[in-house]
Amino acid sequence: MQRNTLSAMLAVALSAALVGGCQTDTITAATDAGPSLGVGAAAHASGAASATVNAELAELRRLTAPYHNVDKAVAAGYAIEAQCVSNPTLGAMGHHAVNAVLRDDAEITLLKPDVLLYERKPNGEYRLTGVEYFVLKSTWDAAHGGATAAPPTLFGANLPLSNHAPFGPHYELHVWIFQHNPSGLFSPWNPTVSCP
């Protein structure tokens, strides 16, 4: 699998302006040493991904498919945030449905995403578009050996290190498993997703 460094792909400044009722949130990202998940579309087209990554993605899709039904997501501990997160030039993340127990622990587990990503349709219903993995760097470091702890890994690569409000330094990875993303499977922003 081709691996580009995320820092070479993302170098945007933090913004907190509100656009059309959606929070605009741009991310400044950096990576630790070691292979990192790139975000370019070509790097993560399914034909370029390894058999192992494809198998992991298929299992992730299978296990999260029930969450197309928002009631099942809520029953599993996810709470949909009212805010729709977008960027005026890069696209949107949509609505985050956060599982606070998973988000606040010190682990990243492939088949237990911390956050589900939804796009709100014109009729008010939510459509599942992807998942997000998230852990604060301080939480991860405290549980995995301190400031020199290796970053968490998924899909055979390090998770990107981001630093934006309100979280500060944290590892996060978006995976657009139910909505094509021309910016890349692992890109934080999806230009095909929008806020109403």
Brief characterization of the structure:
This protein has 196 residues and is an alpha+beta fold. The protein has helices at 6-9, 51-64, 70-75, 100-104, 137-143; strands at 18-19, 22-24, 29-30, 79-87, 91-98, 115-120, 126-136, 153-154, 157-158, 161-164, 168-175.
Description of the structure:
The protein has 196 residues and is of the alpha+beta class. Helices cover 18% and strands 29% of the residues. It has five helices and eleven strands; from the N terminus they run H-E-E-E-H-H-E-E-H-E-E-H-E-E-E-E. The chain has helices spanning 6-9, 51-64, 70-75, 100-104, 137-143; strands at 18-19, 22-24, 29-30, 79-87, 91-98, 115-120, 126-136, 153-154, 157-158, 161-164, 168-175. The protein has a nine-stranded mixed beta sheet. Strands 8-9 form a two-stranded antiparallel ribbon. The longest helix is centred in the first third of the chain and has 14 residues, at 51-64. The radius of gyration is 16 Å and the shape is globular. Mean pLDDT is 81; it is low at 1-36 and 39-46.
Please tell me what the overall shape is.
Answer: globular
Strand content: 25-35%
Provide the residue-averaged pLDDT: 81
Whole-Å distance between the termini? 35 Å
Low-confidence runs: 1-36, 39-46
Describe the biggest sheet? 9 strands, mixed
Structural class by secondary-structure content = alpha+beta
Count of helical stretches? 5
Largest beta sheet: strand ordering: 1-2-4-5-6-7-11-10-3
Number of strands: 11
Order of helices and strands: HEEEHHEEHEEHEEEE
Rg over CA atoms, rounded to whole Å, is 16 Å
**What level of helicity do the residues show?**
10-25%
